[in-house]
């Protein structure tokens, strides 16, 4: 089975209560994670993150995920609801008034070269009326549908937006928000509570990460000494990425616990912002 990178198990978690729980799975560029929540109060009960290691092909990624699913007991229980989110970098935001369902591939092809091995999908974003158009490897999408028939599938940007938009209403002025999972970076720019920009990037080094963040500041003529950056996900204050960010951006904040949905005792005692994407996925209605 894949190596467990970290996990949180609340004392109130019980496998026998699975039919009153919801399972949400997050597939990343180089990771596989899931969260189990109480379906009534949305409290996270179990969080488990796996390392997939070096992946040379989508087939090998699927093989490792298949092994995890086969051997990890909570992934094989009967749940009230199951969701799957995909953390891929190929996505774009299209206003609803301009969206044509038959042109999803064309929207993405204008941004990057896309092959015929992808499945093109879109999620409707509310309260803003727009579509998050994205691509997922066809082989991976088919595998997950066969593993969990009838399951809702979303893009991670859709999940994050659904939670950040509520937080944005309580932040004055403009801000940039970034979430990190493995090599995947999700970036959002809000102005006066409204989403202006949203995108995903795959980064291989700290300098790539800084480049993508500063690209947003430059693209929208934002002053990095005034506009704050809010962070969540797999990033630490001691990391090279964080130290580099602080050279360019004056105000950097990690999501606080009071900005997150209801947390159990164990999750409250750790840096819960590191699991924000999973918590947001588990909190989807």
Structure overview:
The chain has eight helices and 14 strands. With 285 residues, the protein is of the alpha/beta class. It has a domain at 165-258: Protein of unknown function DUF3822, C-terminal domain (Nucleotidyltransferase, domain 5). The two termini are 30 Å apart.
List the main descriptive attributes of the protein structure presented here.
single chain; Nucleotidyltransferase, domain 5; six-stranded mixed beta sheet
What does this entry show, briefly?
The chain has a domain at 165-258: Nucleotidyltransferase, domain 5 (2-Layer Sandwich), CATH 3.30.420. It is 27% helix and 33% strand. The protein contains eight helices and 14 strands.
Structural class: alpha/beta
Dominant shape: globular
Strand content: 25-35%
Mean pLDDT: 92
Query: What is the CATH architecture descriptor of the domain at 165-258?
Result: 2-Layer Sandwich
Distance between the termini: 30 Å
Order of strands, main sheet, comes to: 1-4-3-2-5-9
Instruction: Tell me the helix content.
Output: 25-40%
Work out the number of β strands: 14
Poorly predicted tracts of residues: none
Number of helices: 8
What name goes with the CATH superfamily of the domain at 165-258? Protein of unknown function DUF3822, C-terminal domain
CATH class of the domain at 165-258: Alpha Beta
User: What's the main sheet like?
Assistant: 6 strands, mixed
CATH topology of the domain at 165-258: Nucleotidyltransferase, domain 5
What is the element string, with H for helices and E for strands? Answer: EEEEHEEHEEHEHEEEHEHEHH
Nearest-angstrom radius of gyration? Answer: 18 Å
């Amino acid at each position: 089975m894949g190596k467990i990178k970290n996990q949180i198990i609340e004392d109130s978690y019980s496998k026998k209560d699975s039919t009153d729980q919801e399972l949400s799975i997050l597939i990343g560029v180089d990771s596989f994670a899931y969260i189990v929540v109480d379906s009534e109060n949305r409290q996270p009960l179990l969080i488990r993150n796996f390392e997939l290691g070096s992946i040379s092909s989508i087939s090998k990624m699927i093989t490792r995920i298949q092994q995890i699913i086969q051997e990890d007991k909570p992934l094989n229980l009967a749940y009230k609801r199951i969701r799957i989110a995909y953390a891929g970098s190929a996505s774009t935001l299209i206003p609803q008034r301009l969206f044509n369902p038959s042109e999803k591939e064309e929207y993405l092809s204008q941004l990057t070269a896309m092959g015929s091995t992808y499945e093109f999908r879109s999620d409707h974003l509310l309260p803003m009326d727009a579509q998050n158009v994205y691509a997922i490897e066809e082989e991976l999408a088919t595998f997950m549908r066969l593993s969990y028939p009838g399951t809702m599938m979303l893009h991670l940007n859709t999940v994050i937006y659904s939670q950040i938009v509520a937080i944005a209403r309580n932040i004055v002025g403009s801000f940039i928000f970034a979430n990190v999972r493995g090599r995947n970076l999700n970036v959002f720019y809000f102005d006066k509570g409204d989403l202006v920009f949203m995108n995903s990037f795959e980064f291989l080094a700290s300098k790539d990460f800084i480049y993508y963040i500063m690209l947003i500041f430059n693209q929208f003529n934002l002053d990095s000494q005034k506009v704050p950056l809010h962070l969540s996900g797999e990033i630490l204050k001691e990391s090279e990425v964080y130290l580099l960010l602080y050279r360019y951006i004056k105000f950097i904040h990690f999501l606080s616990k009071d900005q997150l949905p209801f947390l159990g005792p164990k999750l409250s005692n750790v840096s819960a912002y590191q699991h924000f994407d999973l918590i947001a996925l588990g909190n989807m209605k």
